[in-house]
Amino acid sequence: MLFNSYIFILIFIPLCLLGYFLLNRFKLRIVAQCFLFGMSLWFYGYFNYWYLFIIIASILINYFCYVYIGKLREKGGSGKGLMIAGVAVNLGILGFFKYTDFFIDTVNHVFKSDIGLLHILLPLGISFFTFQQISFIVDTYRGQVGKYKFIYYASFVAFFPQLIAGPIVTHDEMIGQFLDESKKKLNFDNLTKGIFMFTIGLSKKVLLADVFGSVVNYGYVAPERLTFLSAWVVILSYTFQIYFDFSGYCDMALGLAKMFNIDIPLNFNSPYQSVTITEFWDRWHMTLTRFFTRYVYIPLGGNRKGRVRTYINVFIVFLLSGFWHGAGWTFILWGVLHGVFVIITRLIKDIIGDKKIANPVQYISRGISWIITFFFVNITWVFFRGESIGNALFVLKKAFTFNTGAAGLVVDPIIHGAFKTPEMSELMALTNIDAKIPNLLTWGFLLVSFVIAIFLPNSKKMFDKFKPNVITLIFTIVFFVWSFLSISGVSTFLYFNF
User: Is-catalytic flag, 171?
Assistant: First the structure.
């Protein structure tokens, strides 16, 4: 089920809220938690009921490991063997569904063989709930986990706002809230905050990300049609598509959880405002960065074993990050490029230290650093989106090949047309502004998106400062209705594919 679907907004959420809080009102705590877990399974199985067997089996296996590691620790053992086995099983399940066809295809290319692909369907969210449970098993081995009933553990894994595309939550962030008696009653302030945040996320997804998506699909399917300027419009469109798509999902997840009085961790914090690539990764997919830091980077030695080892550890983390995002060489190359740039950034910092630069040079330096970082992120997104490395390189070739004459500054009319959504076309017709300023929508979408991403505060800040009043009510109603009426077809979130 999609957050941006009629059945979710009109049926699922009202029914889920009503059932959960009504059961809690009658002090049926376990029944209410089972209801929430059951609704989360409906949400997940709506895509494909076969997914339910996978997630339920995963939950049962990991809960078994948790229980028996605990018993071994009580008897004086460490449970290390079972922890390793549990992690291996999790990675094995993830690897089978996500990487089998990739490895077969790679073997076929290297050895000129003709092994048939299995065409295994990737269960939605498997990368997220697998990492979530790996962290739980490792923390259990480390003695950092208390005793939890099965239903609370299952709810921690399957809680629908964060199930499909994160954030990657930890047990200490979630299970305690499910047990908190103060969160069992419907809270009007939290409900209105949640609706406000959900509306912001829905608007980002439907009104911005999906519009850019049409442009991106056109450009990458046949990049030979692109001119110099068209190529840059396509590249920037993907930069903003993935930004508003992921940001929108994160906002909606925060809002939905808040409706149930649950606070999930921030996963997105205006990453395009970053002045270094290191800062970018402190702001983009923050819980994935946290996972790799806790369970890969630090166990490898972190920065405690000298500069060279630190750089190697950083490289390994980003290589794995690329591989986690997708089973393809484009994702691996994307991860490698980010890893190398982070290492270069750290190397420069290690050489010059944290020297303070006097104003105004400091601001000039930060501005240049931001330009370099934003440019790098834009270019590497091309590999992230490309159908293949060759496809990505072709798009970049078009972007860095200036066509002679005026042809290079012409944008494909189909690209301009993709920005003309029905409501915007009606507005243009009423004002006749498109006749006065041709293709205003193309540049308007890009400019507005740039301003939102670079200059406006993060949605979380708006969320924290939110107070129910006439202005916020009008804002929420207008954008909710506009977004709701703009929902058309099935438009999944990009991170559903990871």
Answer: no
Q: Does residue 170 contact residue 449 with C-beta atoms inside 8 Å?
A: no
Nearby residues of 354 by Cβ (< 8 Å), 6 or more positions away: none
Nearest to 459 by CA among 197, 162, 258: 197
Q: Which residue positions in the chain have pLDDT lower than 70?
A: 354-364, 403-408, 423-438, 489-490, 498
Rounded Cα–Cα distance for residues 69 and 80 (Å): 8
Helix ranges (H only) for 10-79 are: 13-25, 29-45, 50-74
- Supply angle C-alpha 471, 455, 251, rounded to 5: 60
Written as six digits, the tokens of 289 are 């960065």
CB-based contact 196:463 (threshold 8 Å):
yes
User: Whole-structure pTM over 0.85, yes or no?
Assistant: yes
Concatenate the DSSP letters of all residues of 131-194 into one string. HHHHHHHHHHHTT------HHHHHHHHH-HHHHTT-----HHHHHHHHH-GGGSS--HHHHHHH
Q: Where are the domains of the chain?
A: 6-186, 192-497
Instruction: Give the pLDDT confidence of 300-325 residue by residue, as tens digits.
Output: 999 888 899 999 999 999 999 999 99
Q: Which of 171, 285, 325, 416 is catalytic?
A: 325
Note the pLDDT of residue 437: 60
| Count of beta carbons in the 10 Å neighbourhood of residue 496 | 16
Contacts of 93 (CB under 8 A, 6+ apart): 54, 58, 126, 130
Tracing tokens 């269960």 back to the chain, one arrives at: 123
The span from the CA of 169 to the CA of 136, in Å, is 10
Please report the pLDDT score of residue 490 as a whole number. 57
d(CA 435, CA 481): 28
Residue whose C-alpha is closest to residue 441's, from 215, 203, 204, 243: 215
Tokens of 72: 């071994």
- Work out the number of other CB atoms within 10 angstroms of the CB of residue 88: 11
Check: CB of residue 78 under 8 Å from CB of residue 86: no
Cα-flanking dihedrals φ and ψ of residue 284, to 5°?
-100, 130
Residue located via tokens 């894994």: 157
> Rounded distance, CA 226 to CA 408, Å?
9
* Contact between 104 and 118 (Cβ < 8 Å): yes
User: Six-digit token pair at 170?
Assistant: 């930890």
